[in-house]
Design goal:
By secondary structure, this protein is mainly α. It has 2 domains: about 100 residues, Ankyrin repeat-containing domain (Serine Threonine Protein Phosphatase 5, Tetratricopeptide repeat); about 60 residues, no CATH class. Helices cover about 50% and strands about 5% of the residues. The protein contains 10 helices and 4 strands, in the order ββααααααββαααα.
Length: about 180
């Protein structure tokens, strides 16, 4: 940066911001953004993500907050088409995952976005993420009949996931999902 090299220069296909986000270097992310790094740049090994998508996928709450403060939009889709909220809800369950989802929603992410004709809630149901389903319902996600159908379908396809699916079904029904469970 001090030698006249543009802050968003790629080295080996990755920018400094991309790598700082990926490896969780909060202070370096701040420094790069202050130096003019683009918070919406292409990131990831193949340029398939944004820095905010990487932060969401790796449950890096503070970095996500810094990127949002720097102008990253909570509803930007990755080049591969994933909305950020989907990346956060379908990431391997991690300690900060609920905080990332709340942060994105608090900053304006659309809980009704669709990917492959599924809402964020339906996506979490399909992946059997009980706690995330409950969180999304608390945040206003629509407990649709389709979500209930997906939970029942998951039981049929993955009998070993029955207990989690039953918890998902209970949460959906308690939140007003139309229909009845058919395990």
């Amino acid at each position: 940066m001090g030698e006249g090299v543009p802050v968003d220069t790629c080295g080996g296909g990755r920018t400094a911001l991309d790598l700082a986000v990926r490896h969780g270097h909060d202070d370096l992310v701040r420094l790069l953004l202050e130096a003019g790094a683009d918070p919406e740049q292409q990131a990831g090994e193949y340029g398939e993500l944004t820095p905010l998508a990487q932060a969401a996928m790796h449950s890096r709450t503070e970095i996500a907050r810094v990127l949002l403060d720097a102008g990253a939009h909570p509803d930007t889709r990755c080049r591969i088409g994933f909305p950020l909220l989907f990346a956060a809800t379908s990431a391997v369950p991690a300690p900060n995952c609920p905080e990332i989802v709340d942060l994105l929603l608090d900053r304006g992410a659309d809980i009704t976005q669709r990917l492959r004709d599924l809402t964020t809630l339906e996506w979490a149901v399909w992946f059997g993420q009980v706690d995330m389903v409950r969180q999304l319902l608390r945040r206003g996600a629509d407990p649709s009949a389709k979500a209930l159908d997906l939970a029942n379908e998951r039981i049929r396809r993955h009998p070993d996931a029955r207990q989690d699916c039953e918890h998902v079904i209970e949460a959906l029904l308690a939140a007003g999902a139309p229909g009845a469970a058919t395990p």
